[in-house]
Amino acid sequence: MSDESHEQHPPNEPSVLDYVKSLFRPGARIQIPDFAEAAPVDVPPVDAPPASPDVQPDSPFPWRALLAVFLACAGQFFFEPPAATKGLGYAFYLAALGLLGWALYRKEWIFQLRYAPDAEGTDPLIFRPVQFFISLALGVWAFSLFNDNLFTAFNVFVWLLAIAFFLSAFWIKNPHHPSLFKRLAGWLRKDSWTLTLSRWTLFLLAATALAFFFRFTQTTRVPPEPFSDHAEKLLDVYDVSQGQTRIFFPRNTGREAIQMYWTLLVLKVFGTGFTFLSLKLGTAILGFLTLPFIYLLGKEIGGPRVALIAFVLAGIAYWPNVISRVGLRFPLYPLFVAPTLLYLLRGLRTRNRNDFLLAGIFLGLGLHGYSPFRIVPFVVAAVFLLYWLHPQSKGARKELLIWLALVALTSLYIFLPLLRYWTDNPQRFGFRAMTRLTDITTPITDPLWKIFLTNVWNALKMFNFDNGEIWVHSVMRRPALDAITAALFIFGVALVLTRYLRQRHWLDLFLLVSIPLLQLPSTLSLAFPRENPSLNRTGGAYIIVFILAALAFDGLLSSFGRGKMRTVLASLVTVFLLYVSAAQNYDLVFDQYYTDFRSRSWNTSDIGRVVQGFSEISGTTKTAWVVPFPYWVDTRLTSIWVGDPTRDMALWPAALSDSLRAPGPKLFILKADLEHPEGNDQGSLDVLARLYPNGQLRLFDSDIPGRDFWIFFVPQE
User: Fold this and answer.
1) Which label site among 122, 170, 483, 634 has the fewest CB atoms less than 10 Å from its CB?
2) Domain residues for 149?
3) What is the pTM (predicted TM-score) of this model?
4) In this structure, is residue 179 part of a structural domain?
5) What are the pLDDT digits (tens) for 349-393?
């Protein structure tokens, strides 16, 4: 029996029941143990490395905290597919949460409870009217110039000029904090430069290298095949290269512009051409660029160590990795959510108008990226509302409407080209969203409220249980998080909820409610509830999810306290947890996701290689065709594999005789399925046999069942 079991409790010390009751009576006068007071932690300066928690070397060894984490991680593994023993998972989790509560009560789990103090100042309420009215005039002019859904050198110049004048009208110059440009200029003017590598810098470099590896290794291999959306994207990118510089791309129910221009830049810089690789490389870079903002947001919320942990967890995670690799616009949602929240939260803490202007810039840019980002203006409004409702807003409530207006106006200036397109084409602009939200394309039979609540519940379960059934960007029917991160996320939610009940800090409540808010693009899929949850439309939520997990991880490490031996043990625990997390995420992305994707996608790359081989014999791909068949390959993708994104290689069965007019050798690719006659294009084979009696037929035998195809070769006549 431990010595702790013989401790005599002072008569005035409350019981556990008193403690639990106090959580719901924050104004009670009873002296309740407060783990913030038990282990006071000085909040480090924003740019300082993390300080060790103020815990004595002889503090209790955190065996309860370690056991709680172990049980939670073990329980989470029971939810891995096929999840035949979920009951054990629930039991382990209940035990883990009980141990977590015990560790908190015994002051063993040290959870950072104090945010950086809010600034005392208020907004100076000044602006430059001349610049403001010039920006209004230029903005109206730019709006009128965007009348044909095209970016031109002139209307872009007027638009950027309007943005510059607006920002100059409201930007506050601070002589004590020079701009980045001035700091860079001063650094360049130095006679000598000194490079200092601290231990913290080495940690950051190592974390960046690890994230870089997970984001970019095997980019050509994972995922292996494009699908129809990629063909649409490459056609849009090609259109841009030919001078069709659209604001909104109407092809494939409509798409915003950023990915098209970004991919064109990527393919020119890296020389990858109009290929699937260009799309994947471009979006992988966007996913990687999200990580610095996760670091900065984590630093704003929980300090440097929380920032680094969130950076690492997000850098190695399967969820952001997969949606960044697939080559579509998915990573643009979290990419702009992170800086928008960063500058918004920082602005409310510092009460610095410039941060709200920066938040507005990223809010506006995000609206040009991926349509689920359209929910973020409502998230911004929720931030201001929650802040206003809590006592932390004291002394700044009069300025809140001004700051909100600045965020809105700034984003409106950035959004201006799309605003014009939306005004001119409201149905086309909102068509895709309306197909999910309403019954314009498919009937909705169940009550909307019932579908929505079910969707919300399913989306909230995605982190630990089931991330949906969309195979193109997920490993189906498994948790969205690895076992370590999923367990830490649950602990993070529990700890932040406890902290809110104790301190009523608005940011804690926002961390909790922001997740379902950022999941709304998925949960509002009322017409197609089977599309919920989806990793792409909930992507913005992972920013907060990894920060919550990092807060829990940081609390565990803080529990070890000081001392050489305890530091070594904390380091070993860190290495072990990160190793298990990295190993599982690596398997999820580069084995499970790759294998499942390859088995479900059509092998257009194999067809492309066959056509490429034919072109080496014939000197052309113009006499190579793919005969369309229901629910088979997208014939545009085969052209992309051979470097001709503008050609559709389809030659329909009714037009096979037209090939007789083409001179030289010919190649026909047809659907093959020997096991299921209805899936074999026997009719087209019979027609080709009559047209070309000297044709040579062979079967491409794929190593994937159901992915064979016929090769009908006609030699030179």
Assistant:
1) 122
2) 125-171
3) 0.90
4) no
5) 999 999 999 999 999 999 999 999 999 999 999 999 999 999 999
